[in-house]
Amino acid sequence: MNPHQLQQGDLADRLARMDLLPRTIRNVRMQYRLAVHTLMPWLQQYNLWKPGAAVCEIGCAEGGVLAAFVERGTSYALGTDIQGALLTDISDPVWKSQGLDIEFSHHDVIYEDIPEAWQERFDVVLLRDVIEHLDDAQIALRNIQRLLKPGGVVVVTFPPYTSPFGGHQQLLGTKLGAIPFVHLLPWSIFSSIIKQGEPVNQEELVRLHQIRLSAADVRRAAAAAQLRVVDERLFALRPVFRWKYELPIPSLEVSALRSLPGVRALAMEAAFILQRPV
Looking at the structure, do residues 156 and 167 belong to the same domain, yes or no? Predict the structure, then answer.
């Protein structure tokens, strides 16, 4: 989609004119445009997505990413999330109102069986800013591998724990939570900072501290799941920032510097395409 088309209005703009919560409009815009401008071109660079493909997103939330794929010819789209009410009350009715055929299902990729109907069905599985929240990345990727057709791929993006906001401390809604790297302070200090924040997010920040996911962890989990690394990208400024904050923030890729000490640990985003063998 070129800038002229974007100015004329895209699907995210049309939804912004609906009677939806501002948070829903903001999240859909971010998801949809990230898919159009970053995720799909990346897959197309390796000829890994084309119209007619089947696509699944784990942790799809409002479903804006899937909507972009469906709008451009995906044959079957499945979105799963552990937030069943979000899918039922927002995601499903919003996209039905737009005539987009997306199946939504309440499902936990770690602790629930993969339904037989989903097994080996998908050309592309998306795991966008989800894997760092999962208790076991190896179990997650093994289960996702069962969703893939031979030669199918999973796209994984996430902020490594040692990145500036890898602890998701900004969710605390406090001044200390707005400080980069504060989550890397000794636990005795950071745990007291967590207790000062929004109660609804405290438990999740403790979990993230326990998981402490890194790019190396994802590589090991991929190997255990028999998934080949097609590409690994690292960003000092995340592509999603432009759409998340609605500001002309350029993405800053530092993949060429990955061999330098500390680059993988400090990058704000690690992104992988992982492929099941044919």
Answer: no
